[in-house]
Design goal:
This protein is an alpha+beta fold and 170 residues long. 29% of the residues lie in helices and 26% in strands. Strand 6 (107-113) and strand 7 form a beta hairpin. It binds ligand K1U and zinc ion.
């Protein structure tokens, strides 16, 4: 297993649209293992393949308190989303240190393959529903800051670029 580097906003590769996985094989299972290790190491509750510069439809999530209930969603599709919405604070491992409110459907149903290639349906609400929607946005090249006002987004962009310059200088 290996820790994978996480792309940081405003890296243009975060806006790549991911392609469907053609076969759930050893290569995809190795990617899933590396993504889980990377997510746990970064103390995240989710990670999309896009964030590690792999542009295929793979997501890993673990919203459990104990950090021992990994969920793998390959080629996920939302089959139902509630009309009821909720606004919750979101963070993103690709936008470190930034948290802001985003409106999402409160409950969703998702169809996906697991790491064995088995089809499964997940019914989600609360933080899990928010996290799945956030990660599925990554797969279509959307970062949560794009829901914020242009003023906030530009401030975040400047902050990230400044932090990158300072890291490069150190
Ligand atoms: O970068 C990511 O996509 C992972 C992201 C997932 C996420 C967190 C919160 C709401 C929606 C999606 C994170 O794990 S950010 C860091 C984190 O652990 C966290 C932040 C806020 C609330 C709960 C957890
Ligand atoms: Zn994210």
């Amino acid at each position: 297993m290996a820790l994978l580097p996480i792309l940081v906003y405003p890296d243009p590769r975060l806006h790549t649209v991911a392609k469907p996985v053609q076969a759930v094989d050893a290569r995809i299972r190795a990617l899933v293992a590396d993504m889980l290790e990377t997510m746990y190491d970064a103390s995240g509750i989710g990670l999309a393949a896009t964030q590690v510069d792999v542009h295929e439809r793979v997501i890993v999530i673990d919203t459990s308190e104990e950090r021992n209930q990994p969920m793998v969603l390959i080629n996920p599709e939302i089959t139902w989303a509630s009309a009821e919405k909720q606004v919750g604070d979101e963070g993103c491992l690709s936008v470190p240190g930034i948290y802001d409110g985003v409106e999402r459907s409160s409950s969703i149903k998702v169809q996906a393959l697991d790491e064995q290639g088995q089809s499964r349906e997940v019914a989600a609400e609360g933080l899990l529903a928010v996290c799945i929607q956030h990660e599925m946005d990554h797969l279509r090249g959307k970062v949560f800051v794009e829901y914020l006002s242009p003023l906030k987004r530009n401030r975040i962009k400047s902050k990230m670029l400044k932090a990158r310059r300072e890291t490069e200088r150190a």
